[in-house]
Fold:
Amino acid sequence: MPLNISDNLPAVKILEDENIFVMKETRAVHQDIRPLKILLFNLMPVKIITETQILRLLSNTPLQINITLIYTKMHLSKNTPREHLDAFYQTFDDISHHKYDGLIITGAPIEHLKFEEVDYWEEMVRIMDWADEHVTSTMFICWASQAGLYHHYGIPKYMMKEKMFGVFNHNIYNKTNQLIRGFDDEFLAPHSRYTEVRKEDIEKIPGLEILAHSEEAGIYLVASRDNKRVFITGHSEYDPLTLKSEYDRDINKGLDIKIPKNYYLNDDPAQDPMVRWRGHANLLFSNWLNYCVYQVTPFVLENGEV
Structure:
């Protein structure tokens, strides 16, 4: 079964061109099935790109999924057309009286700020706390993973000497955890960040489990013991050219940025990028939807009845 998203969302045309089955609202209403309700809290400035990346990965499942997009009320994006936000997005106040099977919170390019200095931090905290009672499982991506680990467990983030930038090899821990079922012992995933959380801090928290780690890039995948909170420090959702776009952008700004590691053929930016994380990305999102959401979410969602 496919994604059920608004007929006019720009991602529809992109995904259909990629031969991804998208069920528009006008068709989905005729199916007698209880779809999963997934909330996407999009913090990225260029929201259309990020929502398309996330939706692409959510589409790789036999489940029907209803997507609700929300953005921060306290900070309006300058890089996404206002008409797009008005047409397809809601605020937290609009949806807070509902329950959801899953919540995805994206990253945001605000690593240089302390969490409490972020202008929507109070709103972010409110949503994270609300999710504990209204969402079956929450996936935190990149900056959001650091924010969630900080808020829920007091784990700090640290500035690094240089940007962790490229595609890195990772090893899995605890092969029996359902979230990493089917993973290879080693797999590749992109990172693009200036801050990190550290293994030794996470290991002090009994309620958390490290599921994947990189000798070079550090922590990648952490989850609560019940998989109700899943923290991904990298960007498995990235398109083939996302790292290239970031690299070109920083070069044009005159920033001292190194070539993204293990990304271009022969590490030569004049060559084409090599996409070697797509299989892992699809498996990660499929496992989350199946084992962390679908298998444990109540059949009657609003009142929590199984």
